[in-house]
Design brief:
alpha+beta; 2 domains; 6-stranded antiparallel beta sheet
Length: about 220
């Protein structure tokens, strides 16, 4: 039986490192916040995806950033979301990924999410397929189902952005009709798609909360 990669002591190496934000299809509503000083893609992905035991499907990297002091950045994030921490001994928090992104914007970072997502070649194909199977079971976000009528305005959770609902699954952003996933990608100026629900507010409530209330224990809808 192949051995799992040994955990790396993140305190051994000084200097910049990676702070990552992970979600898992088998654990809806939870976010894992951690760090690594490993720059080698293979080692990094072994840590992020294969290092956890008892997890039925691989983690998905929502955000990965390079910061000057990863230990302090991680500690600050853990302190900020302390009340939402599930277990003091684990790095899981019952929060929206957008909340972490907002704090990282203040800290300052280099976004390395695309390269981290690209570095998942160490994950067996069967495990990736299992995760994708769970993802496909997740209901698609539908504004009509969620009680959000056409003409409603959704406000960004961070910043002053807004989008208008123009159909059951369409919004208008900067005068163009598109999916909310595409609008979120453009608004955040990310080169990769992100789960949009955590990033928008409707009548004072997170779209993620409305989605979970509508469809049950699912989150991070597309």
């Amino acid at each position: 039986m192949p051995k799992r990669p040994r955990p790396v002591d993140n305190d051994q190496e000084p200097g910049s490192g990676i702070v990552y934000v992970l979600t898992n299809e088998a654990m809806p509503g939870l976010v894992k916040i951690g760090r690594t000083t490993q720059d080698d893609p293979q080692v990094r992905m072994d840590q992020l995806y294969n290092g956890a035991t008892g997890v039925p499907v691989p983690f998905d990297c929502v955000m990965a950033v390079r910061v000057e002091d990863p230990r302090s950045a991680e500690k600050a994030l853990h302190a900020a979301f302390g009340p939402q921490r599930i277990n003091p001994g684990r790095e899981f928090f019952e929060i929206d990924p957008a909340q972490v992104a907002a704090l990282l914007d203040v800290i300052g970072f280099e976004d390395v999410t695309p390269e981290v997502k690209e570095d998942n070649k160490s994950i067996p194909e069967a495990e990736l397929s299992a995760s994708e199977k769970l993802r496909k079971r997740r209901p698609n976000l539908n504004f009509a189902d969620m009680g959000i009528p056409v003409g409603s305005v959704l406000h960004a959770a961070t910043g002053d952005g807004e989008i208008e609902v123009v159909g059951e699954r369409k919004v208008s952003f900067q005068g163009q009709e598109m999916s909310i996933t595409q609008a979120t990608k453009l608004y955040l100026q990310r080169p990769y798609p992100v789960a949009p629900a955590p990033y928008w507010i409707y009548e004072g409530r997170s779209l993620s909360d409305i989605y979970v209330e509508t469809y049950g224990g699912w989150q991070d809808a597309t």
